[in-house]
Amino acid sequence: MTEAELYSxxxxxxxxxxxxPPESLKYCEEFTFRQEDILIVTYPKSGxxxxxxxxxxxxxxxxMTPVLTVPNWDRVPWxxxxxxxxxxxxxRPSPRVFATHFHHRMMNESYFKMKPRVxxxxxxxxDVFTSSYHYYGMASxxxxxxxxxxxxxxxxxxxxxFGSWFDxxxxxxxxxxxxxxxxxxxxxxxxxxxxxxxxxxxxxxxSLKADVTEKIADHCVFKxxxxxxxxxxxxVPEEFMNQKKSEFxxxxxxxxxxxxxxxxxxxxxxxVYEDKMKxxxxxxxxx
Length: 287
Hints:
Number of helices: 14
CATH superfamily: P-loop containing nucleotide triphosphate hydrolases
Family: Belongs to the sulfotransferase 1 family.
InterPro entries: P-loop_NTPase (IPR027417), Sulfotransferase_dom (IPR000863)
Number of domains: 1
Helix content: 40-55%
CATH topology: Rossmann fold
Enzyme class: transferase
Distance between the termini: 36 Å
Domain Sulfotransferase: 36-280
Strand content: 5-15%
CATH class: Alpha Beta
Keywords: Catecholamine metabolism, Cytoplasm, Transferase
């Protein structure tokens, strides 16, 4: 099926209509934030599911109950997805934890007024591309990716769901409300998960004991989290997400793109990256 059949355009970017019908986008636009809210913001395939596991455990100070009993899409709902309307989020006690794939410019009026705490996760775009390519091949609500070359051109031009990685990252890096944003990298979480848990905890005002930090980090190691049916999306019906084609939680490593890119693809990607990011002063671990 084509983009026209599977996607809607919302604020200039494609969103899968199955997950984001008009009424859910309206709900998101009218949503009222609180200052104590915690918002996990990512471009798709940058570590959202991982953060949906880590953050509730930090908030609960190591109590495993929420992550072992509540599916991650209800535990940390995406505000723009249809599930959000059904969860009575207005009645949840603070701090509420949400996720979004929205660009900074797509955030609603209440966000800019209340300035909730934001955890913005970034990942090497080559790995984002590689992970996305597998994901598009197994999700029925996304347009078939075609060949890797074809999908790369779509990715580099932002003609996929949630638009351009470059625009997404630059928009959030240029946000004025930086005092309420923690920028964190997928790669640093892989290199030092315990240190990342401590860093996130400090940002959220949680002084975790060493044994609690250890417990959270151990549970959230990729291979352990992959076994949690509340987080690995195995509860999603096969008609929507066929994990026999490709697992949703696939490898959870940095640098997997090297196993998939040809020399020509690497050169093409690098050329576009250098052009799009030439004015960005931020230091990325993959540069």
